[in-house]
Amino acid sequence: MSSTASQVKYSYSLWSPSDTVKDVAESLGISNLPDEVSKSLAMDIEYRINEVLEEAKKFMKHSRRSVLTPLDISHAFRVLNVEPLYGYDSNRPVKFREAILGPGQTLYYIEDEEVDFERIINMPLPKVPREVNFTAHWLAIEGVQPSIPQNPLLSETRSSATGQSGAGVAEVEVKPLVKHALSKELQLYFDRIVAVLTENTPDDEASAIMRNAALSSLGNDPGLHQLIPYFIQFVAEKIRLNLKNTAVLDLMLQVLHRLLSNPTIFIEPYIHSVMPLILTLLVGKRVGDSQTSTKEQYQIRDFAASLLNHVCTKYSDTYHTLKPRVTRTLLKAFMNPNKSPGTHYGALSGLRAMGPEVVRMIVLSNLKDWSAISCSAPGLSEEDQRRLATVVLDCLRSLIDPEISTIDEISTEDRKSFTDFVGPEVEKLVTEAADSEKIIKAVLESQKFP
């Protein structure tokens, strides 16, 4: 025997791979199989058997059984993409019998059941079983049953209940299939958080510490999933009643930010409830009152734009219609000349937060028409003009490629093309900027790839 063959590990179990593999090879007409080949084949077979048994044990454990059945093996074969075995039924236990062939030689075999061929031949053929398949849908979300084809309509449920109770009987009240029950601990937690967030002592140091602790808890604590709809409803109510109070609006945006940033919360089902709150503060007609400084009002819109960017970046793959729907909403606010300067600022901030591709496709193509009407609208304060100029420049700067450090000198023809494209109002803003040449070059380059 060669030294290479002697280095091959014989077996990881008690069976004899050399004899077994050679016996199978001889039955197939292969004689004189080398020892190293038989050992290598045996080790591979042994690995495959262990793999199948590990998968079969998973099915056994998930079925809460302590006995491995042939059905578990068939399921394991299916998972491993191996053709399953046929002819073994797991409805009855497999019995093994023992036969003594000689001294120290024992043979185990499966006991065969005696059957009556005439009875089997005259039996009708059984029905072909249907293939088992699975599908998933939302039966209910926090006690509310969504209107999808898999769930019955409320009208159908009421009509069936009325029909079963007999004609002329009053309509039966249909109770929800899922009752949303909160534990006492979660109720106390929610009441305490709400009480801390609604205290009217913003200048008190102790209250500020408590609010920061509450916000930190919302952003990091696990086990808050059941409270998400209640917190969203709380935020929506506070925003609706305090659109003139920028301090409350800023606090509610912080609550949304912490809930969206909590890694232990599955918040995807509630994005459709969060987006209206963000868009309200982003493109609302007025945020704050006449006594609130303009700076605070625009800070609220900037905060809402950052949350919009976070939501669209993180959940656009889950909800494929999220970005198009938000873009349409912002475009309507952007192109409506009757909207306030704050609404235009919020729409531009939101479109910029959606990414440079949205800026290139939506903002640039409408910037000339918008600037001709909005930039020269009467009643614009100096702060509004400065803010609109800033957000327009930020949108155009988002098109600049950060990898390009130097650019060629802008020619007169390029400047004329830029003015014709964006309008004289925007061209004046860009010319006064320190990085005007980069902005012009980025805008002109973006038009080469429609």
What does this structure look like?
- The chain is mainly alpha-helical and 450 residues long.
- Among the domains are: 3-110, Histone, subunit A; 267-446, Serine Threonine Protein Phosphatase 5, Tetratricopeptide repeat (Alpha Horseshoe), CATH 1.25.40.
- 58% of the residues lie in helices and 3% in strands.
- The chain starts with a helix and ends with a helix.
Strand % is under 5%
Helix content bin: 55-70%
**SSE order, one letter for each helix or strand:** HHHHEEHHHHHHHHHHHHHHH
The structural class is: mainly alpha
Q: What is the CATH first-level class name of the domain at 267-446?
A: Mainly Alpha
Mean residue pLDDT:
81
Low-confidence segments, given as residue ranges, are 1-6, 165-170
Order of strands, main sheet, comes to: 1-2
Give the CATH topology of the domain at 267-446: Serine Threonine Protein Phosphatase 5, Tetratricopeptide repeat
